[in-house]
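Usage

Read records sequentially. Each one opens with the input sequence:
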Amino acid sequence: MKQTLIFYTTAGCHLCELARAIWQTHLDPEYCAVQEVDIATDDTLIERYGTRIPVLRRQRDGRELNWPFTVDEVVDLSLD
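and closes with the structure output:
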């Protein structure tokens, strides 16, 4: 089954660019889809993630990785 990760981000976030480079380089889109969500469009998301972005969240069970995260942690999140 294809894994889906949600990438919480916003415009102008340099750490988000670093995180995006990790998952774009190391995750195979055939096995893992990443959906980007801009937190700036939702007050609830701003409250929850505003000081923590970038965050990767596994859709299936809600497990989250807060920045900083490693390549190995991202790959593990996509495989579990």
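Summary fields computed downstream for this record:
- The helical segments are 14-26, 43-49, 71-79.
- The first strand starts at residue 3 and ends at 9.
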